[in-house]
């Protein structure tokens, strides 16, 4: 479509109506026609320049109704010139909000600058954008009202860092809804988990330690000190850790990397924790520990077991658990982990009768838990 074609589709009468129409309604209708044309075709540079000249006239001198027609029609269009989008995003609320929520041509710099002085309606609009960078969410956490921050936290495509989240917690230290929204995030920065752990109690604290990684030393301290709150499960925490090597080293330094702990971890399916535990205890790299633990024969596991100074009486239980791991077929469904843990614990309990009472009670409790979890999923599926 050439410039002449654009002019044909937007007639001289339309252009006159857009610029000198008798009523705002006439000018708004002409603006709508132009915007629809711009939004539905691929423009050449020449065509884009011509259309932008007309839009500049609309933005600069048109009535509110006409500017709103432009904003609403082109709110999600990649063809809206960024300079015009930036102007409209700073216009009155009814014109700015559609663009702030949907326009792909607004830059992070635009959004951050707007947030520095935006009223709540604009903050909420930005929080609902399809994607949000860390720079924008940090600005929102720094300048926004708590409701807008919560809106963004519920946006799974929004990216947050520890700086922004920490600022939000400092600004709204007693905001339970804000804390709950953070707990629902797929991943929390460890520093934020640490800050929340110092504030939360009861059910919210339980949700935090069940779903999110804690700093290794804090996890160990919380598991050790149960006077004020329920201790956390260090094995469950391992599955949330991004740096497993560091976590295992911290467990070892605190005397928590015991044979009993490693066996419990294996029976719960935390194989990666077990591999790093053997590497730490045997003083060898993780890749070598992996090869020995998963050796198809019996020599590899036996060798690393002895090098790690594990008690010989527990070897049959470890051997049974590793066999279950290698025998289990995973189909990629959500039930894989539950099915694996259930089978693992049952096999170890039936094959090895000399488990210490404390470990036996722990495994029986976990077996009850995974059975209940499996039943809940079965009922939910219907």
Portion in strands: under 5%
Shape: elongated
Mean pLDDT: 79
What percentage of residues falls in helices of 4 or more residues? Answer: 55-70%
Oligomer: single chain
SSE-based structural type: mainly alpha
The total count of helices amounts to 25
The whole-angstrom Rg is: 30 Å
Q: What order do the helices and strands follow?
A: HHHHHHHHHHHHHHHHHHHHHHHHH
Task: Please give the alpha-carbon distance between the first and last residues.
Answer: 56 Å
Q: How many beta-strand elements?
A: 0
Poorly predicted runs are 1-8, 226-231
Number of domains: 3
Main pleated-sheet profile: none
Can you summarize this structure?
This protein has 382 residues and is an all-alpha fold.
Description:
The protein has helices at residues 3-9, 12-20, 24-40, 45-61, 64-73, 82-89, 93-102, 108-115, 120-127, 134-143, 146-153, 162-171, 176-183, 190-197, 202-211, 216-224, 234-238, 244-253, 259-267, 271-282, 286-293, 299-307, 315-327, 336-351, 357-381. By secondary structure, it is mostly helical. The longest helix is centred in the last third of the chain and has 25 residues, at 357-381. The protein is elongated. It starts with a helix and ends with a helix. Mean pLDDT is 79; it is low at 1-8 and 226-231.
């Amino acid at each position: 479509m050439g410039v002449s074609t654009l002019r044909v589709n937007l007639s001289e009468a339309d252009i006159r109506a857009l610029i000198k129409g008798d009523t705002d309604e006439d000018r708004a209708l002409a603006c709508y026609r132009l915007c629809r044309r711009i939004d539905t075709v691929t423009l050449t540079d020449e065509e884009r320049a011509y259309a932008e000249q007309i839009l500049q006239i609309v933005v600069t001198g048109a009535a509110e109704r006409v500017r709103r027609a432009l904003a609403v029609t082109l709110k999600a269009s990649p063809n809206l010139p960024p300079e015009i989008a930036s102007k409209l995003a700073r216009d009155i609320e009814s014109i700015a909000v559609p663009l702030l929520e949907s326009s792909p041509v607004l830059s992070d710099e635009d959004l951050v600058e707007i947030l520095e002085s935006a009223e709540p309606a604009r903050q909420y609009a930005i929080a609902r954008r399809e994607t949000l960078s860390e720079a924008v969410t940090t600005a929102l956490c720094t300048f926004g009202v708590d409701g807008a921050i919560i809106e963004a936290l519920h946006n799974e495509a929004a990216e947050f860092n520890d700086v922004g989240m920490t600022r939000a917690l400092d600004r709204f230290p007693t905001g339970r809804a804000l804390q709950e929204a953070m707990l629902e995030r797929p991943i929390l920065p460890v520093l934020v988990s640490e800050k929340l752990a110092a504030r939360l109690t009861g059910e919210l604290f339980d949700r935090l330690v069940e779903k999110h990684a804690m700093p290794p030393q804090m996890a160990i301290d919380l598991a050790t000190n149960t006077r004020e709150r329920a201790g956390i499960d260090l094995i469950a925490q391992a599955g949330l850790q991004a740096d497993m090597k560091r976590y295992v080293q911290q467990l070892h330094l605190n005397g928590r990397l015991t044979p009993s702990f490693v066996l419990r971890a294996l029976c719960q399916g935390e194989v990666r924790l077990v591999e790093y535990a053997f590497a730490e205890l045997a003083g060898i790299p993780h890749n070598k520990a992996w090869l020995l633990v998963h050796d198809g024969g019996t020599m590899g596991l036996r060798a690393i077991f002895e090098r790690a100074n594990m008690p010989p009486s527990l070897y049959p239980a470890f051997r049974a658990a590793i066999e279950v791991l290698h025998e289990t077929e995973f189909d990629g469904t959500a039930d894989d982990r539950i099915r694996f843990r259930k089978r693992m614990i049952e096999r170890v309990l039936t094959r090895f009768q000399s488990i210490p009472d404390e470990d036996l009670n722990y495994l029986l409790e976990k077996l009850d838990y995974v059975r209940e979890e499996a039943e809940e999923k079965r009922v939910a599926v219907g």
